Amino acid sequence: MALTLSIPIFMLCELFSTNFETFSVFYFIILTYFTVNMIIEHKFTAKKIVLTVMQFLISIFNICFALVCPGNWMRSAAEITRWMVDFNSLTPIDKFALGVLDTSSKLIMNNILFLLFTLVLFVITLKKSKSKLVTILSALPMCSVLLITVLFPLSQNYLSSYSLLFERSTNINPMTFNSPLPYIAFAFFVIIMTICVVLLLNAGKSVKSGILVALVFSVGFATRVVLGFSPTLYASLLRTFIFLDFSMIYCIVRVFDDNKELFENNKYFSKYSLVIGTTFVVFYALNTLIAISSQY
Known about the structure:
The chain is 75% helix and 0% strand.
């Protein structure tokens, strides 16, 4: 009886949650991944097929609804005039590049969770990898954050051109088509995010686990990149990183869980990890509350 009642409640919850189009795409991709796994492992039953098809239909319905909803078209027209008058002159490739540039720059500059995420990847790789080259590459994402935040005074003196990658002038628009800076910034950010994905693939306890955490991070990143296709990109600020933030939290917990045997006999890790973790949670919570309050 309880199971019978839980199914329609779950479907109603999915209908409500996937009404936000970016999460609907997120859910659709993750659901596809688990569906493929069930097919490969022959774990499908008649009931699972029905439930999976229902979930796909709800997700697809909300994606289509967002695309054809008259209110979204009216809002888009109003926001183009207000925020991005050159929006209609951009090609789909330009909008994709704009989404990658804006998402990556804000993620590296303004998201302390990404610093923890890159630190975790570096520590796991340092403990697991025997290759110096791989270890050096694993430090690049973390260094990219430190050089524009904690070590910014140092980078200004010795790497002054680095900060240019994060300026608004690097964004793709008709005025910057002939400038090399947007393309250099795009290549740099793609390299950093690709390294993160590869490190996640290698950090999993198994190939299946590695693919899952890499996929979760990639889809979370994509939920913010798609804002490049919206004229409200510059108006949305950091609140649109919510799904990417949750993706990184999941990846951090999952990667540590997959590699906990690396730290079981490390007394220093056991001693300081709880203190560092608690400090981060408190700081992150305060930072989030301040960010929310500043919007009102």
